[in-house]
User: Fold this.
Amino acid sequence: MSEVQFDLVVIGSGPGGYVGAIRAAQLGLKTAVVEKDKNYGGTCLNVGCIPSKALLESSEHYQAALHDFKTHGLEVSKIDINLKQMLSRKDKVVQQNTEGIAFLFKKNKITPFKGFGKILKPGVVEVTAEDGSKTLLQSKSIMIATGSVPSELPFLKYDEEKIVSNTGALCLKEIPKSLVVVGGGVIGLELGSVWSRLGSKVTVIEYSDRLGGGMDQECMQVLKKGMQKEGIEFLMSTKVFAAQKNSKVVEIEYESLSDGKKAKIQTDVVLVATGRRPFTQGLGCEELGIKKDQLGRIEVDSHYQSSIPGIYAIGDVITGPMLAHKAEEEGVALAEMLAGKAGHVNYNTVPGVIYTHPEIASVGLSEEQAKKDGLAINVGKFPFLANGRARAKGFTEGFVKIIADQKTDRILGAAIVGPGASEIIHEIVVCMEFGGSSEDLARSFHAHPTLSETIREAALAVEKRQRQM
Assistant:
């Protein structure tokens, strides 16, 4: 058994792990990364963020060709779907991203180890390769960045063919005639959208009376109406309690939580998207006595250190939103702290996005949460319908909403539903990062005509000064 000495060993090469490792190496720490899977990049790059966006992009092009080209004077006589090519493109996008991480490891002189990492004791990680060989890594510090895995329902066990997680939903061999999505969160809505656009009859079953969890519900209503127009059906406040599978279909049994009525639905494929749980199995946490909370997340202090000195954790395995960019910032902050610098993460400015059509993006407090907290606020709102660029694009659904403190005018949060929401949210993020006010945004130049003008108008609307465009 060979032994190697490092300053930092990172277990997991997802966004938090590989970005944190790169920052540590840039700061002069001798760094290693341990990855159990075939490819680098974790869930995000392999079976999450990147491949899902690739399929969303392809399916949007298909929908545009079917329904939008005519209004632009483009006549297309026939549109065929080559699913094999679509999935191949998705796989190529994934490959390019994962290979990019390998290049960055080499460029930054990071030593990668393929195998399962287990912490034997503080400062020691055992890596078991696929062939059973073992390597001991000695390290001053250990960063756990192993991410999360889908939560499985006991009566809907994944076979990744008829009962699928996000992994299986990204590589179905054919377009199902029907798809039931259990869970109305980000994953369910995005992947449900993909297959709906490609021709599946999609039904979303959601236990709660709201979609998107903590997302702005006024935005979610715009999205829900849009998805219903596309033919997606929603069963809200509904509990799935049983399922039977045969070679042809899956029969789902569900119950309305409002009136107790029970019913059944048959479908070709079921996507179970009921959330994710931290992946810490086999890492040695239990043997070492690393403390966890009731949800299985590793408890850490303000410096991301666990209950065991020298062992740290970031990303999905600790508290907070399970978002790639949140994990990245934590990885960078921890690396900087380990190098003696002042790493910091501002959790008040973590943006959240649902990449549907229309997109939804938010940051900070929602209007609902601000009122619930008893805060005195002013709300500015402006519709894309009144935006010249949105009209030119033929996409006028939605609005921008900005929530500001009534006394100081400091921006507390924002929500966008509409075209380009995932991109234009970031000027609000930056403004909030600097403690900016709605007046700061309102007085800033915005090129005309652009979608981002809606943000300026919403900022003006905080003081009822918006203009029609």
